[in-house]
Amino acid sequence: MRDTLEADSIVFEVGRRRILSDIYIKIETGRITGLLGRNGQGKSTLMKILFGTLTPMTKSIRVNGHYIHKPYLERGLISYLPQFNCVPADRKIIDLFKDFELDYDVFVSRFSHIASGSNLKFRQLSGGSRRFIETYLLLFTPGSFALLDEPFSHLSPVIIQEMSLLIREASKQKGILITDHYYEETLRISDQLYILQNGKIKPVQSSEELDASGYLPLSCSSITVFKSSS
Amino acid sequence: MLTFKHQMHNYFKKIHFIGRFFQSLCIPLLICSFFCCFTFWIYGAVTIPVVCWFKIISTIIFILYSFNYQQQQLYYYYNLGASKLQLGAGVFILDMLIFIPTLLFLL
What we know:
The complex is a heterodimer. Chain A has helices at residues 43-51, 93-99, 104-110, 127-140, 157-170, 183-189, 207-213, 223-229, and strands spanning 4-14, 17-28, 32-37, 58-63, 66-67, 78-81, 145-149, 175-179, 192-197, 200-204. By secondary structure, chain A is α/β, with parallel strands linked by helices. Chain A has one domain (4-84, 144-229): Rossmann fold (3-Layer(aba) Sandwich), CATH 3.40.50. In chain A, the strands form two sheets. Chain A has a six-stranded mixed sheet with strand order 6-7-8-3-9-10, with helices on both faces. A four-stranded antiparallel sheet of chain A has the order 2-1-4-5, covered by helices on one side. In chain A, helix 4 (127-140) runs parallel beside helix 5 and helix 6 packs parallel to helix 8 (223-229). The model of chain A has no long low-confidence stretch (mean pLDDT 88). Chain B is an all-alpha fold. Chain B has one domain (26-106). Chain B starts with a helix and ends with a helix. The longest helix of chain B has 23 residues, at 84-106. In chain B, 23% of the residues are buried. Classes of the chains: A alpha/beta, B mainly alpha. At the A-B interface, loops of A face helix 1 and helix 4 of B.
C-alpha cells in the first residue's frame, strides 16, 4: 500500500506579498514528484512548510488522511535536503552515517570515488562530494518521504547521472519531491510534475503546457526531454 | 508501536544530538560560567543572585544567537527528529548541570 502525503490550503505571505496561495500538492511513495518554477516563486518555502519548519498562514498536511502539525517531528516520516549544506562541517563522515543509522561500508563499496576516507571531516570534502553525501544520507535514512531542494547543484554531469539513479532507487521505498534548476534531469526522473507560478501551483501533463508556462527560455523546448523520459 | 527498547534508544539518540549541538557553542558558555564562578569566588555569597541571573540570561542569549547564525545546521538536527525547542532546552539544562555544581563546589 502506498503512503500519501497531501498538503492543501497553504497560504504564505511575507509582509503584504502573497508568496503561496491556496496550494495543493500530493506526494506518494514509489513516485517522484518534480516541482519547477522560476527563482523566488516559493519552491523552497513550500518545501519548508511541508517539512514543518515554516509556519504559513493556513495549511493542512495529511499523511494517509491523518492531519500532522509538524511532519519532521514524526520519527521515520520525512527528510528534507535544503539547498545549502546543512551538515556540521566538523563532523566526521563515519559519524554522519552513524547518526542516520546507515552503513558507511555499503556507501563506500558503491561510491568510493566520492569519499575516500571515513575519518575525513565533512569540510575537507569537495562541494560536489558534500552535496552527494548529504543527499545520500537523507534519501536512505528510514522514512516515507524525502524533499530534495536542488540536489544536483555543485555536481558534475556524470555525478548528476549517478544521483538520478540513486533518487530512482530510493523512490521504490519513498515518495520524493524534487526541485532543481537542472530542469532536464528533473523532468527525466519525475513521474509527475508541478509548476509553481505567481503563487499558484498547477500540474503539468505535457511539454506544451510546460513551454506555455514561460519557465523555459524560448530557445529551449521541453519536448525532447519529455520524449526521452516517456 | 514502538517497544520500550526502541523508545529508550530514541531518547539516548536525542540526548546525543543535543550533546553535539552543545559542543558547537560550549566555548562561549563555558567562558561565561568561568567568569560567573570567578566573580562569585572573589566577591562572595552576596553576588549569588546577580551571578545566577547573569548566567541564565547570557545562556538564553547565546542559544538564541546560535539559532540565528547556525540556521543552516539546524536542518541537520531537524532531519534527525530534534526540534528547536528540544535543542535549546537541552543545551540550557546541560549548561546548568555544569554551572550549578561548580558554583556549589565554590560555596
